[in-house]
Amino acid sequence: MPDAAEQAITSTNAVSLKRTFFRTLAMLIFLMVIAINYKQLLQHYSAFSLANAMTHIEPEHLLSQGLMLDLTHFALVVFILHACWALVITLSCRPWFVISSNDNVKTQIWLVLLLLHCILVLSANAYFYPTSLLGFFRGTPLATGITIATLGLLLFANFIYALLGTLASHNRRTNTLFVVSLLVFSLVPIYLFTRNTNTPVFSTSSDRPNIFIIGIDGLRPDHLAYRGADTSLAPALNQLLSKSLIYDRTYTPQGRTFVAWMGVLSGLYPTNNGARFNLAPPELINKPFPILGLLADAGYQTTYAIDERRFNQIDANYGFDRVIGPKVGAADAIIANVADLPLVNLAINLPLLRNLFPYLYINRAYGKTYDPLLFNHEVLHTLSLDKPNFLAVHFCQLHWPFTSKDFIELDKTRWDGNYNHYMYGEMVRKVDMQVADFIAKLGRRGLLDNAVVYLLSDHGEGFLLSQDRLAATDTEVRTSHPEQPTALNVAAWGHGTNILSQEQSQVVLASLRYRDGKPVNPVGKIDGLFSLIDVAPSIVANLSPTTSETISSKRLKFDGQPLPHDLTQSLRPNDNQRHIFVESSLPVRSINTSFIDDKKVMSETASHYEIREDGRAVMKPESYHNNIQLKQRSVYAGHWQLVMLPKDERLILVDTANKRWHNLSEYAGDAPWETMLDSLCQHYHVDFIDTPRSECSPSFKQSLIRNNSDNARYAKGENSSR
Ligand SMILES: [Zn+2]
Asked: Could you tell me how many helices (H) and strands (E) the chain has, helices first?
């Protein structure tokens, strides 16, 4: 196109058009610089410090080759996009320039056209992406469909007229070629937008069911109807759950997206799959997932899809045939923070152009242009129509910072003074609509004619709500030192930051069995204690006929156990004594004050990260080992949780049924703490090799037992004296 355009420019009045082009380009770049500075004023942090806060990028990381390449690519694409726009404006001036030879008149014509083009782009940006910082026309008559359509058509007609005029002055053969290629170029997007989308239907000779794991980031069970919440917050999810088998008390192995998903897909605890943190060094992680090999052997196409990959780097290296989602890399955070430019926003979701923005397209972290239905569309189009599918898809709209492409209306009935919690609720509505759309489209494609669906969340979210706080027991309050009150952080913002915050680790887990598009499974809540690591063994157990030899040949070993299929399936004798392990990520001090000041929060941890050759942010291996020592660790049994904190001698026993915590050395009840302590020490013994914990020594346990019986006697004596 530039060649032909150049010919067009040189054909008439060459100097003036060429000059106009460079004038236009200079003007657009000047406006872009103003826009970037204007955004800076609004944002209060620089793009770099925001990026630093989010993915721990330090200035020296900019030397990383992969990161430099990604940033250069983005800058180049933005430049070329604006150069093409300058070319369109220049060409549009041509027919008017032919009429007048007066330079002043020409300049005025140019200015008018430039202004109209800028208004069109700004209006369209404000109309389609109203939360853009540069959407100043939002709410004005300029940002309405009718204005944009009228102005767009006028300018388009002007451009086409100019183009045809240019071509008419050229030799006929190249002209025809150029017109044809131009028409194709402009018609392809129109075709893609308006084509008749006959839904292709899934048909397979295999009798194996499609397996869908549908993950929703940060969805708290207590915000759903089955735990007594208002149904209107997530109508579609509640309806789906009312037809599901719900594993009511399910915990994540760790309240972090990547670690939780590693648990889901490996069936192993973090201690055994190597993923103890988000952004863990890839060489320390056991991959690919053996279950994917087994599924591939059984004829499955395996797909992983996620709409925010800043903290979840699962990709083809983990054994998936296909991976959908934005590109993974540290450049994500920087690009997402400077990307908000009208022309870029308008280009991101366009067919053909979207490939130029691998860090921005279907990236929920760039919420200003993220279109939930477009992500659904991408995932659905990747699914095989003749092979059974294994799809693990994760929807991240519910992740902090709880923003979306559209403005959130204020629902005064829901406002509780907690801003983050309010926004979270509103995003629950949005992700509810997205998942409903996704499942409806699976059905329409025949993908639910024979399917197993697991619905889960990767972790909960802490908002310091009053109902989330654990209370100290009377004994704890009484025996605590007056100067040193029972300072224990029992609640925290976010997820993975505090394992005493039950709402951070409790997750949704439910399963459905579809036949002919309808769920046919038993419905209800199943008693027991479950973990996300139970999903992988359940899938393998259902993969009949899977012989035990295949499993052993794939070296399939799981920490989890298959989930029960129905409510009548009697709990195995040891199910009541099942122990579930939950560990924290890095406990971050400033997270307990507020997580709005993410710059401060992350400055505590930023030095733990490095950027690799491929442009990915990764925790430094040496920090990784040190950070493991800072973890909080816990084990659940029945309604009890036993917690070991990193810099606290106390062992904390939590009664989750009554939302109370005890200092174990003051405890006198009948909680099975001895076996819990044994399994906690056993499960994390590798962590304690270099830094042994006195709590795991036999003498410590003996003294606890003595204390325990003393306390019991004391309690009895006290009761009888009453
Ligand atoms: Zn998550």
From this structure: 23, 22
| 185 and 230 housed in the same domain | no
**Residues 302, 404 within the same domain:** yes
CB-proximal residues (5 Å) to ion ligand 1: 217, 257, 458
Domain that holds residue 690: 632-721
DSSP state of 60: G
Question: How far is Cα 155 from Cα 112, in angstroms, rounded to an integer?
Answer: 11
Half-sphere exposure of 8 (CA within 13 A, CB side): 29
Spacing, Cα 367 to ligand 1 middle (Å): 16
Distance CA 281, CA 617 (A): 9
pLDDT value of position 52: 54
User: Tokens representing 402?
Assistant: 């709880």
The pLDDT of residue 174: 64
- Whether 256 maps to a domain, the answer reads yes
Instruction: State the virtual CA torsion across 438, 441, 447, 450 in degrees, nearest 10.
Output: 80
Q: How many residues does the chain have?
A: 722
Q: How far does the chain reach from its first CA to its final CA, in angstroms? A: 94
**pLDDT for the residue 281:** 87
Instruction: State residue 192's pLDDT score.
Output: 61
Which parts of the chain sit beneath pLDDT 50?
Answer: 1-15, 483, 485, 573, 590-597, 601, 720-722
Residue with tokens 């008419």: 168
Domain count, the chain: 3
520 and 666 assigned to the same domain: no
Q: How many whole angstroms from 551 Cα to the centroid of ligand 1?
A: 30
For residue 722, the model assigns a pLDDT of 39
Rounded to the nearest angstrom, the distance between the alpha carbon of 218 and the centre of ligand 1 is 5
CA of 396 to the centre of ligand 1 (A): 7
Looking at the whole model, is its pTM more than 0.90? no
Q: Do residues 713 and 566 both lie within one domain?
A: no
